Amino acid sequence: MKVKKYMAPSMPEAMKRIRAELGEQAVILNSRMVYSGGFLGLFKKKNIEVIAAMDPEVNHLRPQLKDKPKIISKDSVQPRMQPIDEEKDKETLAITKEMKELRTLIHQLSDRQSLRIEAYPDDIQRILIQLSDQGVENIYLHQIGEHLLTKWKESKEEIEFLTIREWTLNFLKNKIAPIQGTLPPFTKKFVNVVGPTGVGKTTTLAKCASLAVLEQRKKIAFITTDTYRIAAIEQLKTYGNLLNVPVEVVYKLSDFQKAVEKFNDFDHIFIDTAGRNYRDPVYVEELKKVIDFDEDMDTYLVLSLTAKQQDLEEIIEIFEKAPITQFIFTKMDETRSCGALFNLMMKYGKGVAFITNGQNVPDDLIEADAEIMTKLLLEVEKK
């Protein structure tokens, strides 16, 4: 596979060069605005950087129209289903996988490029350093920095740091709000939590259930598919006793369907699942053998903020087949970095339902919204 980076003053100019060198079958892997020259962040020259790729093997997979036989008559031999060329299909899948991995690599390389924070005015530098310490990726820091610099240049008055921080809060809120949405929690009957082992799924489910029972006065029930750990079943039964709600243990899809029928007149059914090796895609397929995802269901992927972002991305890639409605982030009290929360929202276009900040049930549960998450990133205390 041939990969090449192009720099041009505009996208049409870049595309013209790409077509000339790589041909019409070239694939755009990444594009971004870059700035060069200038003095103290001013008068910089703007260009677009485009990374394109071309795999000569792809051309062999495309049917050659000139070699297709001509149809002499409509009444000639009826067409038959052509046998699937398994080798060609495997080759196509392999190329698709390679392209996906390459895009991920390009994203990582782009993010690792040094961000020249020192080129910005001092107060903007303070904001960018703070967000960088939180773990916000360079690709987003650059967007924030350029937005703040533009407003700083347009202002005719002396700008205080608090004003720049307010600009940042508004910018982040405007980025988060369209993804986050405004729907309240538990709009569907089934509330399903999935995720890897050790992230606190059962405790989080109990916190959510407590919110539904104690604040919303809903009639709820628990279903657990976590039959791998006796302790998990007993833990959920303990929460069930405290909340005075029934618990049903299911082992297969027919058990699940019977439990659904049993709890037909309940407002919500909260479903606990086993934590397994997230690197094994078979786990998600096993979930589908026990849980009917076609039901009126919201599925929340529970992730720990203490995990590395690369690991979190791998988890999301596996569980996206579930499919996932929103994220729930746990263990905020065990880390000082919340940048992954923002990065993953931007990358996968999914909102955050809740954030947990301790083990206490039901207290340590934060219902997430754009304002709360923005203030977490800038470490602004909520009034």
Automatic annotation (TrEMBL):
InterPro entries: AAA+_ATPase, FlhF, FlhF__GTPase_dom, P-loop_NTPase, SRP54_GTPase_dom. The keyword Transferase does not apply. Its main location: membrane. Signal peptide: none annotated. Pfam families: SRP54. It is found in: Cell membrane. It is a peripheral membrane protein. CDD domains: FlhF (cd17873). One of its GO terms (molecular function) is GTPase activity. GO terms for biological process: bacterial-type flagellum organization; protein transport; SRP-dependent cotranslational protein targeting to membrane. Keywords: Bacterial flagellum biogenesis, Bacterial flagellum protein export, Cell membrane, Cell projection, Cilium, Flagellum, GTP-binding, Membrane, Nucleotide-binding, Protein transport, Transport. Residues 187-378 form the AAA+ ATPase domain. Residues 188-379 form the SRP54-type proteins GTP-binding domain. One of its GO terms (cellular component) is plasma membrane. Necessary for flagellar biosynthesis. May be involved in translocation of the flagellum. Belongs to the GTP-binding SRP family. This is Flagellar biosynthesis protein FlhF. It comes from Oikeobacillus pervagus.
